[in-house]
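Lab notebook: predicted structure, single chain.

Context: the supervisor wants predicted structures on file for every construct in the current expression panel, including those that have not yet been purified. This is the next one on the list. No modifications to the sequence; it matches the entry in the shared construct table.
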Amino acid sequence: MAVTDRILPALAFRLASVLAFATMGALIKLAEARGAGLVELLFFRQAGSIPVVVAWVAMGPGLPTLATRRLPAHALRCAVGLSSMTFMFSTLMLLPLAEATTLQFTVPIFATILGALVLRETTGIHRWSAVVVGFIGVVIVAQPGSGHIPLIGLLTGLAAALLSANVSILIRRMGSSEPPATIVFYFSVLSMVPLLPLFLWTMGNHDATTWAMLVGVGLIGAVGQLTMTTSLTLAPVSVVVPMDYSGLIWATLFGWTLFHVLPTPMTWVGAPIIILSGLYIVWREHRLGRANALAAASTAP
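Prediction complete. Output recorded below exactly as produced.
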């Protein structure tokens, strides 16, 4: 299948992942309102992923592809990823859906910073300017001193984005030898080491509807993870990542219909600034990647 033939399926998978993650976020808030705790939400998110990922692999490349020689790398990815998820879920519980989603749009900004500091990637004035503009958007959304966004919610949201950017770097390093489904599988399985005993210690007494919501968090989260991963196997990051910003539409709709909350005017001002900053960073990286590829091809023997 040619690259151009893969773009539409890639975009469809990415849009499906955005909807899945937005639905998961709404379920998290609904379950939390019915008494579910953070540990329970994390446990079901990861435990629910295991059967879905195993079925996905069994129907595709086959279960033998789950074998790995890079368990320490998976353990590190799990530690960082689980920390990121903990902060992200905390943010969803502390803030309205639209504001929590907007803070996640800072991932490309943090990825640029980490790429320069950790991977020693060359980062010019254009991308550094986009980073500064993106953080101006964050300040506009946060409205310091207004009390609209609690400081703890702002900090957990930015911490989640920073750690998500770290996860992206780790996956880039692992991607040369580990298939995407294998990475997702070990992330879910290794998460059970800390989460299972904590879940048994803190498990609440819920009604059937709440338990169903918790199961839904896991199953829908797994669908989101797999469709997101699949989109990256079909098209470049620069093609599919812009679809992520449609999550603000779903977050606004869920916030309005389920919780009767709409984003503040300042969120509508700051969110586009953050989005444009992220889009510019993605476009700039894509452009530089093409330029480097052409330069390498021109100097090849």
